[in-house]
């Protein structure tokens, strides 16, 4: 099998230093130590400190490790919602979180838009007693970024609600003011360039208090993944179950590399790479933009409608060694999705740009 | 850091072929492919076929991948219990499953024994309408094996109940007749010698039907980890979320190695190694058996009470390059626990035997 470069929107290309870190992990016997050992706790602590520094997470916020962002949807409803959640839905993933809330018997409401756009943000439509309001900062399925100002507007109008942010393919590239949100989460196989198998959940003390109150009021908040239990273990830099310690180690290593590079540099490069790929979609005769509104176009997941079946583009690019993503769900066969994550260098994105520019199908 | 050999009862020493497989995984870009790709599905299918063959799992049983055995405790209650569960509790882990059931609001009953023993198995004490009855085939915290005949006796007396088996540090070493149980689960960082981060859940069609009935009767069975959803995805050899694909790949590889060695050979060697370590505990002037009843002594996790603080033994052995486990919970400082898993060769166990035999503290 010839080696390929993955531009799929997660799992994607590994961060370029992962292979070396994996070899070091074997030397340090990271996969053999107990998840409650001092060695594993040191990885946990260091990874958390790095994330706080990289994403400018203020005091009073906690970072917990779970199995996936999917799990975190469920844990948020279990811990943070007694009755009512409200979801801004504009893609497969934001809709799925809404479905989770309904499955768990909550009164879930949504403001929905056509894929490729965002719903109108009218705070008056959100009931005053809503407990949790969710946004996908970057909809991986559609390549739409939710402008943070719209989120801050809702925070202002609903200061009592928990503001929950899906940062899956956004963090750490897209900057957000954590003081204006309460719960945020991501999985590591997107912008962090790690193997899948770890979800990261960031919550403030309001979330902890909400879970404690829900429990005190006689409602179940779950078993081992309750916020009080995550906090109890997390304060010792321990997880709530025998977790993928290797991934915490790799996250520690890759965030160290990112800090050394500098988050500003990573973000500037992301803007450049994103604009280049958007230009590709604008200029290429076979493509047009799925996301019509320029200011909603994601820097990290670029989506093009293809005038011929997208599988042909995918196959042809794969034969050249570049793997890009297909359209998601109903858009399969009609779109390509290209990830531009921190591991994808400017040079690599330029090479992809030139390659696709020279193709006619 | 000098390289050590882990005899801890999980996470433990990696299966001796894992390092090579990890290098191959990098070549095959296992950590970069989509979890729903044909490549990942092929790993899933092959791993399942290997497990069925290795553990003699009959037709009508399904194998699903989740994040941990801890998660599977929770999913079993959510999917399989409306009101009543019954737990044979004789250690930290069997008790924890009972606690999970109570946390989720069920009427959980238990038959409890002192650690180091098993509870009396009197089927008449189990209410006739019990929905799920649980046993730990090997209590990792105490080194006690639950004789399978006792389990089969309960199956016979309660044919309507789901018989649920914690096989965490037992499978594939301890043989069980799957036709006499319904749900079984383990995590891969014990006898399979893999990095932590994957739980394996084996269920028969009775479990699927029970979950469907629970749901049809208007009870929530969860969100993405419901048995119908696991089955829907699993029938395409796909998982229900972006899972640790690397671990499924490694499980496929290690089970292939185990099949090549032969399960009979692995079990014979386990018997020999277990007896040798038990003899060590019997003969050594500083040790005595925590598990008094010889026929309850585990082959895979050997527990010795130490006449001097166990930390001294652990430190001294660590300085010689051998890492053994401490006592669990209240027994910390009073016991050592030694894992004898398939990756620990006869020669290695003999070396450990000789080393400890020559020590006086």
From TrEMBL, chains A, B:
Gene3D superfamilies, sorted: Aspartate Aminotransferase, domain 1, Type I PLP-dependent aspartate aminotransferase-like (Major domain)
Pathway annotation: Amino-acid biosynthesis; L-serine biosynthesis; L-serine from 3-phospho-D-glycerate: step 2/3
Pfam families: Aminotran_5
Domain of life of the source: Bacteria
Catalytic activity annotation: O-phospho-L-serine + 2-oxoglutarate = 3-phosphooxypyruvate + L-glutamate; 4-(phosphooxy)-L-threonine + 2-oxoglutarate = (R)-3-hydroxy-2-oxo-4-phosphooxybutanoate + L-glutamate
Cofactors, names only: pyridoxal 5'-phosphate
The enzyme's E.C. designation: 2.6.1.52
Gene Ontology biological process terms from the UniProt entry: glycine biosynthetic process, by transamination of glyoxylate; L-serine biosynthetic process; pyridoxine biosynthetic process
Keyword list, A-Z: Amino-acid biosynthesis, Aminotransferase, Cytoplasm, Pyridoxal phosphate, Pyridoxine biosynthesis, Serine biosynthesis, Transferase
SUPFAM superfamilies: PLP-dependent transferases (SSF53383)
Aminotransferase class V domain boundaries: 21-307
Keyword Amino-acid biosynthesis among UniProt keywords: yes
GO molecular function: alanine-glyoxylate transaminase activity; L-serine-pyruvate transaminase activity; O-phospho-L-serine:2-oxoglutarate aminotransferase activity
Similarity comment text for this entry: Belongs to the class-V pyridoxal-phosphate-dependent aminotransferase family. SerC subfamily.
PANTHER family, alphabetized: ALANINE--GLYOXYLATE AMINOTRANSFERASE (PTHR21152:SF40), AMINOTRANSFERASE CLASS V (PTHR21152)
Stated name of the protein: phosphoserine transaminase
Species the sequence originates in: Roseivirga seohaensis subsp. aquiponti
